[in-house]
Target: HTH cro/C1-type domain-containing protein
Amino acid sequence: MNEIPKELLPKQVGEKIRALREAKKITQSAFARQLGISPAALYKIEAGQTDISISRLAQIAGLLHITPDQLLTSNANAPSALETAYAAMKKRVDNREEEISLLQTKLARLYEEVERKQSYFYRFE
Model:
């Protein structure tokens, strides 16, 4: 049934689930309700006392806004691929906005220079 035996899951996985849930200020019963399981079943998952299906692990990760691999690795607080992509795009947008601002300043200076030169030439007409 595609379950990961509890013996293969480090106890830290359950601890991470609990820590991340608590950090988001979600009660055990509310989180269990979101998962469609009993609070007792969630307690066993968080305590590392039960096997967990891959789909359940993915569901838990999704509700915690992380990827399943982040639950299984040592750094669950590492940004997900989506968060990383968003941060990269935001940085590009910010850089573009800075470039646009610099170009607007240059354009304004050029416009002022053209105005000055035109007014200089118009004096001789």
The two ends are 91 Å apart (CA to CA). The chain is about 70% helix and 5% strand. Strands lie at 3-4, 52-53.
